Amino acid sequence: MSLAETALPFTDIRNLVKSFPGADEAALAAVRAREAQLTKPAGSLGRLEEISEWVAAWSGNARPKVTRPLVAIFATAHGIADKGVSAYPSSVNRQMVENFAAGGAAINQICRINDIGLKVFDLAVDIPTPAITEEDAMDEANCAATMAYGMEALAGGIDMVCLGEMGIGNTTVAAAVLMALFGGTAAEWVGRGTGVDDQGLVRKQAAVEAAVARLNGEKDPLEILRRIGGREIAAMAGLIIAARLQRVPVIVDGFVTTAAAAVVYAMDPAGLDHCLFAHVSAEAAHERALQIMGKTALLNLGMRLGEGTGAALAAGLVKAALEAHNSMATFADAGVSGKDA
Ligand SMILES: Cc1cc2ncn([C@H]3O[C@H](COP(=O)(O)O)[C@@H](O)[C@H]3O)c2cc1C
Ligand SMILES: O=C(O)c1cccnc1
């Protein structure tokens, strides 16, 4: 299918968000009932128990399983990268796409060890979107088409999806989107990304301020995404929306993927209930975004890579949680004494 055929205008996307299903309460209750029977002290698997409940609630399976997990990496280029806001050049984007294909990136190793599929989606990786300090990144048709393209990552029976991205300059774009959505100052949203020096940080802050100023107070989340976002952020926002409708749990990675999630959150504060936040990135403002949305990340490993690496690590824990839930013996099966028996 061509992008033009799959393109949705923003009104259609708003309607999709309005039709979001809630949690599957029956599946959730079934998991809680089984959890209570398993041979361990009640609650002793901590957040692993919550993970089993979360997969059940959002996949609609009383015996939650993940058999086809995928890391979807959206790769693109940003005009803003030419303004000295990243420690690396945009040529890295295509080189990393080739590295993903050759199996040489960090994400390849984490996917292999956790038996997770990996697909890279090329969002015109050699054609940067205009610098958001000066021009809108996308027009509506393009932004909606890119969101629709992101939705296609669920094709082929994917039953859990991890968000990943590659796009030099995208921590600047993510900071601009988050500031426009949630307020605050550029200094509060900007961090060192790939490792910019102090002067780079000042340039980044100025770029975020200029991009947000261009919006003249625009608060519509899709307009913010279109005007000062980027293609990978649009595709990931689309994927989060499609996953909710198709009952596929989503694992959000770090700062950049959280900016995509924040667009959906701003449209519907319950719209991320099917998303697990994998880790707190070392990118300073990530924790701030999580706090605003009331999310508690699973891991804190000091990582600041992107590519979906944190999400893929969390996916390994999800698999472990589900294996424990589904394969442990019950007190009755194993003849183990229950509490105070
Ligand atoms: C070799 C390399 C591999 C990467 N993999 C992810 N990123 C990460 O760094 C970029 C964002 O940081 P900034 O906003 O500072 O450019 C994104 O491409 C992100 O995915 C990488 C960056 C580099 C250099
Ligand atoms: O947390 C992230 O997503 C991140 C941080 C630094 C560079 N790229 C991505």
TrEMBL record:
Coiled coil: none annotated. It catalyses: 5,6-dimethylbenzimidazole + nicotinate beta-D-ribonucleotide = alpha-ribazole 5'-phosphate + nicotinate + H(+). The keyword Glycosyltransferase applies. Pathway: Nucleoside biosynthesis; alpha-ribazole biosynthesis; alpha-ribazole from 5,6-dimethylbenzimidazole: step 1/2. InterPro entries: Nict_dMeBzImd_PRibTrfase, Nict_dMeBzImd_PRibTrfase_bact, Nict_dMeBzImd_PRibTrfase_N, Nict_dMeBzImd_PRibTrfase_sf. GO terms for biological process: cobalamin biosynthetic process. Transmembrane segments: none annotated. It comes from the Bacteria. Its EC number is 2.4.2.21. Pfam families: DBI_PRT. The active site is at residue 307. One of its GO terms (molecular function) is nicotinate-nucleotide-dimethylbenzimidazole phosphoribosyltransferase activity. Keywords: Cobalamin biosynthesis, Glycosyltransferase, Transferase. It is an enzyme of class 2 (transferase). Catalyzes the synthesis of alpha-ribazole-5'-phosphate from nicotinate mononucleotide (NAMN) and 5,6-dimethylbenzimidazole (DMB). PANTHER family: NICOTINATE-NUCLEOTIDE--DIMETHYLBENZIMIDAZOLE PHOSPHORIBOSYLTRANSFERASE. NCBIfam families: cobT_DBIPRT, PRK00105.1. Belongs to the CobT family. This is Nicotinate-nucleotide--dimethylbenzimidazole phosphoribosyltransferase. It comes from Roseibium suaedae.
